[in-house]
Amino acid sequence: MTTPRHNRMLLLVLAVAVVGLMGCGPVTTATTISDASHELKEARAHEAEANAPYEYTKAAAFLHKSKELEGHGLYEQSSTFARRSRTLSEKAVDVARESQERQKRKQLFGKGKKTKKKRKAPGFTPSSR
Question: Which of 26, 70, 92, 111 could form a disulfide with 56 if both were Cys (CB 3.0 to 4.6 A apart)?
């Protein structure tokens, strides 16, 4: 049997659960945006602006859009853009590292292809007479 006290307790637990779930959207979005922002700073530290401009620029644009959507209360869409930003920032770091390693190898080993010494063409053409 349910008593009025039991019903009130159940209603109180349900109300607390609903209030707790209402805060999940903003909290998870803020965490996702913070992670994406940290990842973008790491990409900047690896000079991704110069070595991976496409990935870096797109990640920065997605992060900006994410913050804009968060301001409008569109938390799910904001989280989606923040996750995309984080993924692209990670890719920018990888591309920047590869680019820096390639530049170091070029400096260490030269341009890569060895060129043969060019021969000068003779000033005359030999005839077959």
Answer: 92
